[in-house]
Amino acid sequence: MSSPGHNVAHQFDDAVQQRDASTLGMWVFLVTEVMMFGGLFATYVLYRSAYPEAFAAASHHLNAQLGAMNTLVLLGSSLTMALAVRSAQHGARFGTVAGLLSTIALGSVFLGVKAYEYAHKFEEKLVPGPYFVFDGPEGTHAELFFSLYFAMTGLHALHMVIGVGVLGTLAVMAARGRFSVAYHNPIEIGGLYWHFVDIVWIYLFPLLYLLGRH
Amino acid sequence: MSHAVNPHSTPLATLIMVFLALVALTGLTVGVAYIDLGAWSTPVALLIATVKALLVVVIFMELRFGQPLTWLAAVTGVLFMALLIGLTMADVISRGWLGVPGR
Q1: Looking at the 3D structure of chain A, how many domains does it have?
Q2: Do A82 and B9 touch (CB under 8 A)?
Q3: What is the ipTM of this complex?
Q4: pTM, whole model, 2 decimals?
Q5: What CATH number corresponds to the domain at position A47?
Q6: Measured on CA atoms in the order A63, A67, A69, A70, is the torsion positive or negative?
Q7: Which of B57, B67, B89 sits opposite A45 (nearest CB)?
Q8: What is the rounded CA–CA span in Å between residue A55 and residue A47?
Q9: Are the C-beta atoms of A95 and A84 separated by less than 8 Å?
Q10: Among candidate residues A18, A23, A9, the one with its CA nearest the CA of residue A191
Protein backbone atom coordinates (compact mmCIF):
# COMPACT_ATOMS: atom_id res chain seq x y z
CA MET A 1 0.00 0.00 0.00
CA SER A 2 1.28 3.42 -0.89
CA SER A 3 2.32 5.75 1.88
CA PRO A 4 0.47 9.02 2.50
CA GLY A 5 1.79 11.62 0.11
CA HIS A 6 2.76 9.02 -2.47
CA ASN A 7 0.43 10.62 -5.03
CA VAL A 8 1.06 14.24 -4.04
CA ALA A 9 2.87 16.21 -6.73
CA HIS A 10 5.90 18.15 -5.47
CA GLN A 11 4.31 21.60 -5.91
CA PHE A 12 1.62 20.82 -3.32
CA ASP A 13 1.94 20.89 0.47
CA ASP A 14 -0.38 17.95 0.97
CA ALA A 15 -3.11 15.81 -0.61
CA VAL A 16 -5.90 18.15 0.53
CA GLN A 17 -4.31 21.18 -1.15
CA GLN A 18 -3.75 19.11 -4.30
CA ARG A 19 -7.39 18.03 -4.33
CA ASP A 20 -8.68 21.58 -3.81
CA ALA A 21 -6.45 22.82 -6.63
CA SER A 22 -7.60 20.17 -9.11
CA THR A 23 -11.26 20.74 -8.18
CA LEU A 24 -10.93 24.51 -8.64
CA GLY A 25 -9.09 24.01 -11.94
CA MET A 26 -11.91 21.82 -13.24
CA TRP A 27 -14.57 24.35 -12.21
CA VAL A 28 -12.69 27.13 -14.01
CA PHE A 29 -12.54 24.91 -17.10
CA LEU A 30 -16.29 24.30 -16.80
CA VAL A 31 -16.86 28.09 -16.73
CA THR A 32 -15.10 28.30 -20.11
CA GLU A 33 -17.39 25.49 -21.28
CA VAL A 34 -20.42 27.48 -20.08
CA MET A 35 -19.22 30.37 -22.22
CA MET A 36 -18.72 28.13 -25.27
CA PHE A 37 -22.24 26.76 -25.02
CA GLY A 38 -23.34 30.25 -23.97
CA GLY A 39 -22.67 31.64 -27.44
CA LEU A 40 -25.06 29.08 -28.90
CA PHE A 41 -27.67 29.68 -26.19
CA ALA A 42 -27.47 33.46 -26.81
CA THR A 43 -27.95 32.86 -30.55
CA TYR A 44 -30.92 30.66 -29.75
CA VAL A 45 -32.52 33.30 -27.49
CA LEU A 46 -31.96 36.00 -30.11
CA TYR A 47 -33.49 34.13 -33.06
CA ARG A 48 -36.27 32.53 -31.08
CA SER A 49 -37.38 35.95 -29.85
CA ALA A 50 -37.34 37.13 -33.49
CA TYR A 51 -39.19 34.12 -34.99
CA PRO A 52 -41.23 32.46 -32.19
CA GLU A 53 -43.84 30.87 -34.52
CA ALA A 54 -41.25 29.32 -36.84
CA PHE A 55 -39.31 27.91 -33.86
CA ALA A 56 -42.49 26.41 -32.35
CA ALA A 57 -43.47 24.88 -35.72
CA ALA A 58 -39.98 23.45 -36.25
CA SER A 59 -39.82 22.08 -32.70
CA HIS A 60 -42.89 19.95 -33.49
CA HIS A 61 -40.71 17.95 -35.89
CA LEU A 62 -38.53 16.74 -33.01
CA ASN A 63 -39.53 13.55 -31.21
CA ALA A 64 -40.40 14.68 -27.67
CA GLN A 65 -40.79 11.07 -26.45
CA LEU A 66 -37.24 10.19 -27.52
CA GLY A 67 -35.97 13.47 -26.05
CA ALA A 68 -37.65 12.77 -22.71
CA MET A 69 -36.36 9.18 -22.70
CA ASN A 70 -32.84 10.41 -23.40
CA THR A 71 -33.19 12.93 -20.55
CA LEU A 72 -33.99 10.09 -18.15
CA VAL A 73 -31.07 8.02 -19.52
CA LEU A 74 -28.69 10.93 -18.96
CA LEU A 75 -30.02 11.62 -15.45
CA GLY A 76 -29.50 7.93 -14.71
CA SER A 77 -25.92 8.20 -15.96
CA SER A 78 -25.37 11.14 -13.59
CA LEU A 79 -26.60 8.95 -10.72
CA THR A 80 -24.22 6.11 -11.64
CA MET A 81 -21.40 8.68 -11.98
CA ALA A 82 -22.17 10.04 -8.51
CA LEU A 83 -22.19 6.44 -7.20
CA ALA A 84 -18.77 5.84 -8.82
CA VAL A 85 -17.38 8.96 -7.10
CA ARG A 86 -18.88 7.85 -3.80
CA SER A 87 -17.32 4.40 -4.18
CA ALA A 88 -13.96 5.99 -4.98
CA GLN A 89 -14.22 8.17 -1.86
CA HIS A 90 -14.70 5.00 0.19
CA GLY A 91 -11.91 3.16 -1.60
CA ALA A 92 -14.31 0.59 -3.09
CA ARG A 93 -12.62 -0.49 -6.32
CA PHE A 94 -15.44 -2.72 -7.61
CA GLY A 95 -18.09 -0.05 -7.01
CA THR A 96 -15.98 2.57 -8.74
CA VAL A 97 -15.44 0.45 -11.85
CA ALA A 98 -19.09 -0.69 -11.92
CA GLY A 99 -20.30 2.90 -11.60
CA LEU A 100 -18.02 4.12 -14.38
CA LEU A 101 -18.98 1.28 -16.72
CA SER A 102 -22.70 1.88 -16.04
CA THR A 103 -22.21 5.55 -16.82
CA ILE A 104 -20.43 4.68 -20.09
CA ALA A 105 -23.25 2.25 -20.98
CA LEU A 106 -25.98 4.84 -20.33
CA GLY A 107 -24.00 7.52 -22.19
CA SER A 108 -23.71 5.15 -25.16
CA VAL A 109 -27.48 4.54 -25.11
CA PHE A 110 -27.98 8.32 -25.21
CA LEU A 111 -25.63 8.66 -28.19
CA GLY A 112 -27.33 5.75 -29.96
CA VAL A 113 -30.75 7.38 -29.62
CA LYS A 114 -29.22 10.67 -30.80
CA ALA A 115 -27.77 8.95 -33.89
CA TYR A 116 -31.22 7.45 -34.63
CA GLU A 117 -32.80 10.91 -34.32
CA TYR A 118 -30.18 12.47 -36.60
CA ALA A 119 -30.69 9.75 -39.25
CA HIS A 120 -34.44 10.38 -39.10
CA LYS A 121 -33.87 14.12 -39.67
CA PHE A 122 -31.88 13.32 -42.82
CA GLU A 123 -34.76 11.15 -44.07
CA GLU A 124 -37.25 13.95 -43.36
CA LYS A 125 -35.02 16.46 -45.21
CA LEU A 126 -34.80 18.60 -42.08
CA VAL A 127 -31.01 18.97 -42.16
CA PRO A 128 -30.08 22.57 -43.06
CA GLY A 129 -28.50 22.95 -46.47
CA PRO A 130 -29.46 22.63 -50.14
CA TYR A 131 -31.77 19.63 -49.48
CA PHE A 132 -33.72 21.24 -46.62
CA VAL A 133 -37.48 21.04 -47.11
CA PHE A 134 -39.98 22.50 -44.66
CA ASP A 135 -43.73 22.73 -45.26
CA GLY A 136 -44.75 26.04 -43.76
CA PRO A 137 -44.81 29.77 -44.30
CA GLU A 138 -41.48 30.34 -42.52
CA GLY A 139 -39.20 27.69 -43.98
CA THR A 140 -36.04 29.82 -43.79
CA HIS A 141 -36.60 30.58 -40.12
CA ALA A 142 -37.38 26.93 -39.39
CA GLU A 143 -34.06 26.09 -41.05
CA LEU A 144 -32.44 28.45 -38.53
CA PHE A 145 -34.01 26.39 -35.73
CA PHE A 146 -32.60 23.18 -37.17
CA SER A 147 -29.17 24.77 -37.62
CA LEU A 148 -29.21 25.58 -33.90
CA TYR A 149 -30.61 22.14 -33.09
CA PHE A 150 -27.72 20.39 -34.84
CA ALA A 151 -25.07 22.81 -33.55
CA MET A 152 -26.23 22.60 -29.92
CA THR A 153 -27.00 18.88 -29.73
CA GLY A 154 -23.93 18.15 -31.90
CA LEU A 155 -21.58 20.06 -29.58
CA HIS A 156 -23.29 18.36 -26.65
CA ALA A 157 -22.90 14.91 -28.27
CA LEU A 158 -19.21 15.64 -28.94
CA HIS A 159 -18.82 16.32 -25.21
CA MET A 160 -20.54 13.00 -24.50
CA VAL A 161 -18.15 11.13 -26.84
CA ILE A 162 -15.16 12.76 -25.11
CA GLY A 163 -16.73 11.96 -21.73
CA VAL A 164 -17.14 8.29 -22.63
CA GLY A 165 -13.43 8.22 -23.59
CA VAL A 166 -12.41 9.92 -20.33
CA LEU A 167 -14.55 7.59 -18.21
CA GLY A 168 -13.23 4.54 -20.10
CA THR A 169 -9.67 5.59 -19.25
CA LEU A 170 -10.67 6.16 -15.62
CA ALA A 171 -12.36 2.72 -15.48
CA VAL A 172 -9.14 1.02 -16.66
CA MET A 173 -7.09 3.02 -14.13
CA ALA A 174 -9.56 2.18 -11.35
CA ALA A 175 -9.56 -1.53 -12.28
CA ARG A 176 -5.76 -1.54 -12.07
CA GLY A 177 -5.98 -0.16 -8.53
CA ARG A 178 -4.59 3.30 -9.28
CA PHE A 179 -7.01 4.99 -6.86
CA SER A 180 -7.48 4.85 -3.12
CA VAL A 181 -9.23 6.64 -0.27
CA ALA A 182 -6.23 8.98 -0.21
CA TYR A 183 -6.11 9.63 -3.95
CA HIS A 184 -9.03 9.63 -6.39
CA ASN A 185 -9.01 13.19 -7.76
CA PRO A 186 -9.31 12.04 -11.41
CA ILE A 187 -12.59 10.24 -10.65
CA GLU A 188 -14.04 13.37 -8.99
CA ILE A 189 -12.82 15.60 -11.84
CA GLY A 190 -14.23 13.24 -14.47
CA GLY A 191 -17.51 13.26 -12.53
CA LEU A 192 -17.66 17.07 -12.57
CA TYR A 193 -17.28 17.01 -16.37
CA TRP A 194 -19.98 14.36 -16.81
CA HIS A 195 -22.45 16.21 -14.58
CA PHE A 196 -21.79 19.44 -16.49
CA VAL A 197 -22.69 17.73 -19.76
CA ASP A 198 -25.89 16.50 -18.06
CA ILE A 199 -26.75 20.09 -17.05
CA VAL A 200 -26.37 21.32 -20.64
CA TRP A 201 -28.90 18.70 -21.73
CA ILE A 202 -31.26 19.67 -18.88
CA TYR A 203 -31.57 23.07 -20.60
CA LEU A 204 -31.45 21.81 -24.20
CA PHE A 205 -34.35 19.38 -23.77
CA PRO A 206 -37.14 21.88 -22.94
CA LEU A 207 -35.70 24.63 -25.18
CA LEU A 208 -35.49 22.44 -28.29
CA TYR A 209 -38.07 19.65 -27.91
CA LEU A 210 -40.97 21.17 -25.98
CA LEU A 211 -41.84 24.42 -27.78
CA GLY A 212 -45.50 25.15 -28.46
CA ARG A 213 -46.68 21.65 -27.55
CA HIS A 214 -49.99 22.76 -25.99
CA MET B 1 -3.63 3.33 6.25
CA SER B 2 -3.63 6.86 4.90
CA HIS B 3 -6.48 9.13 5.89
CA ALA B 4 -9.22 10.18 3.47
CA VAL B 5 -8.33 13.19 1.37
CA ASN B 6 -11.99 14.14 1.26
CA PRO B 7 -13.77 14.11 4.64
CA HIS B 8 -17.17 14.52 2.95
CA SER B 9 -19.13 11.93 1.07
CA THR B 10 -22.74 12.17 -0.02
CA PRO B 11 -24.96 9.47 1.55
CA LEU B 12 -26.36 6.86 -0.83
CA ALA B 13 -29.96 7.75 0.11
CA THR B 14 -29.34 11.42 -0.77
CA LEU B 15 -28.01 10.51 -4.22
CA ILE B 16 -31.03 8.32 -4.97
CA MET B 17 -33.46 10.96 -3.66
CA VAL B 18 -31.87 13.60 -5.91
CA PHE B 19 -32.11 11.26 -8.90
CA LEU B 20 -35.82 10.62 -8.19
CA ALA B 21 -36.40 14.37 -7.81
CA LEU B 22 -34.70 14.96 -11.18
CA VAL B 23 -36.92 12.31 -12.80
CA ALA B 24 -40.03 13.88 -11.24
CA LEU B 25 -39.01 17.35 -12.44
CA THR B 26 -38.45 15.97 -15.97
CA GLY B 27 -42.01 14.61 -15.86
CA LEU B 28 -43.20 18.02 -14.65
CA THR B 29 -41.43 19.91 -17.45
CA VAL B 30 -42.97 17.58 -20.06
CA GLY B 31 -46.38 17.93 -18.38
CA VAL B 32 -46.43 21.73 -18.29
CA ALA B 33 -45.28 21.85 -21.95
CA TYR B 34 -48.69 20.43 -22.93
CA ILE B 35 -50.59 23.03 -20.89
CA ASP B 36 -51.19 26.48 -22.37
CA LEU B 37 -49.41 28.88 -20.01
CA GLY B 38 -49.14 31.62 -22.63
CA ALA B 39 -46.10 33.82 -22.11
CA TRP B 40 -45.25 31.89 -18.92
CA SER B 41 -44.44 28.58 -20.59
CA THR B 42 -40.76 29.38 -21.25
CA PRO B 43 -40.05 31.01 -17.84
CA VAL B 44 -41.66 27.98 -16.12
CA ALA B 45 -39.61 25.56 -18.26
CA LEU B 46 -36.41 27.48 -17.46
CA LEU B 47 -37.30 27.62 -13.75
CA ILE B 48 -37.73 23.82 -13.64
CA ALA B 49 -34.48 23.33 -15.60
CA THR B 50 -32.66 25.64 -13.17
CA VAL B 51 -33.96 23.72 -10.13
CA LYS B 52 -32.69 20.52 -11.78
CA ALA B 53 -29.33 22.12 -12.59
CA LEU B 54 -28.99 23.34 -8.99
CA LEU B 55 -29.68 19.83 -7.67
CA VAL B 56 -26.93 18.44 -9.92
CA VAL B 57 -24.46 21.23 -9.08
CA VAL B 58 -24.99 21.31 -5.32
CA ILE B 59 -25.45 17.58 -4.58
CA PHE B 60 -24.01 15.51 -7.47
CA MET B 61 -21.08 17.88 -8.12
CA GLU B 62 -20.70 18.32 -4.34
CA LEU B 63 -20.48 22.10 -4.51
CA ARG B 64 -21.99 22.14 -1.01
CA PHE B 65 -18.64 20.78 0.24
CA GLY B 66 -16.73 23.15 -2.04
CA GLN B 67 -14.15 25.79 -1.12
CA PRO B 68 -15.18 29.49 -1.37
CA LEU B 69 -13.03 29.78 -4.52
CA THR B 70 -14.96 26.93 -6.13
CA TRP B 71 -18.21 28.73 -5.38
CA LEU B 72 -16.74 31.87 -6.92
CA ALA B 73 -15.93 29.98 -10.13
CA ALA B 74 -19.45 28.53 -10.32
CA VAL B 75 -21.11 31.92 -9.72
CA THR B 76 -18.81 33.50 -12.32
CA GLY B 77 -20.13 31.08 -14.94
CA VAL B 78 -23.73 32.06 -14.19
CA LEU B 79 -22.89 35.77 -14.07
CA PHE B 80 -21.11 35.85 -17.42
CA MET B 81 -23.84 33.78 -19.05
CA ALA B 82 -26.36 36.38 -17.79
CA LEU B 83 -24.18 39.22 -19.12
CA LEU B 84 -23.79 37.52 -22.51
CA ILE B 85 -27.50 36.94 -23.05
CA GLY B 86 -28.68 40.05 -21.14
CA LEU B 87 -26.54 42.57 -23.01
CA THR B 88 -27.14 40.90 -26.39
CA MET B 89 -30.88 41.14 -25.89
CA ALA B 90 -30.62 44.67 -24.44
CA ASP B 91 -29.11 45.71 -27.77
CA VAL B 92 -31.65 43.88 -29.92
CA ILE B 93 -34.71 45.01 -27.94
CA SER B 94 -33.71 48.68 -27.68
CA ARG B 95 -32.63 49.17 -31.32
CA GLY B 96 -35.94 50.65 -32.38
CA TRP B 97 -36.31 53.01 -29.45
CA LEU B 98 -34.41 55.92 -30.94
CA GLY B 99 -34.87 57.08 -34.50
CA VAL B 100 -31.23 56.88 -35.45
CA PRO B 101 -30.78 57.65 -39.15
CA GLY B 102 -29.19 54.95 -41.24
CA ARG B 103 -29.92 52.31 -38.63
Answers
A1: 1
A2: no
A3: 0.92
A4: 0.93
A5: 1.20.120.80
A6: positive
A7: B89
A8: 9
A9: yes
A10: A23
